[in-house]
Design brief:
201 residues, alpha/beta, 6 helices
Length: 201
């Protein structure tokens, strides 16, 4: 398993930020921000995509209990359509940072771009969820909170099998969209179906 660095700056209060759901056809984008203590460690901590669902569920309460501060924010499908998915990811991270009870001195962002957060310097780290502990922790919170939302939505809209695909563009999800049509939780500005299976809207 990759050996993660605790942070990227010299500051003690560095927040890691990440989001989940950017590439989905349905549901929200969920962003998280986490400030970890200097001595934080857990043998499973890694990029959420490298972990099993069981491992992520084990890590979430541990992160929440031991973090100096953490925040999770949701940007829904209609807002994503209005401001586009890139901006929705940035706004979600800003909202997660707004929730931190301890103000960070520096911010580490997963990815290659970000809208600066007021009065706090940041650094973008490509594939940061596999490099830094605080971003990995944020990725786990974002992923698990988003999965909870999609599991709840699945109970009302079982045809789309969101409990299994979490809103990602899997063949079974697209097949259900072709058969049932989209619902209120789909992102209508996204390519819900391949061009040969266009919807009659």
């Amino acid at each position: 398993m990759a050996s993660l660095l605790p942070k990227i700056s010299q500051y003690n209060l560095e927040a890691g930020c990440d989001e989940a759901g950017r590439g989905c056809l349905a549901g929200p984008v969920v962003a998280a921000a986490v400030i970890l203590p200097q001595d934080f460690s857990h043998p499973l901590l890694n990029d959420s995509k490298q972990l099993t669902e069981k491992q992520r569920e084990e890590l979430r309460p541990y992160i929440i209990e031991h973090a100096i501060a953490w925040g999770v924010a949701v940007v829904g499908p209609r807002e994503i359509e209005e401001i586009n998915i890139r901006n929705a990811s940035f706004i979600g991270m800003h909202r997660a940072l707004d929730q931190l009870k301890t103000r960070p001195e520096y911010i580490a962002i997963d990815g290659n771009a970000f809208i600066p957060y007021p009065d706090i310097a940041h650094e973008c780290v490509i594939k940061g969820d596999g490099k830094l502990m605080n971003i990995a922790a944020a990725s786990i919170l974002a992923k698990t909170f988003r999965d909870d939302i999609m599991n709840e939505l699945d109970a009302t809209f079982p045809a789309y099998r969101w409990k299994k695909n979490k809103g990602y563009p899997t063949p079974d999800h697209r097949k259900a969209i072709a058969k049932e049509g989209p619902c209120e939780h789909h992102r209508m500005t996204f390519a819900l179906l391949p061009k040969q299976l266009k919807l009659d809207l």
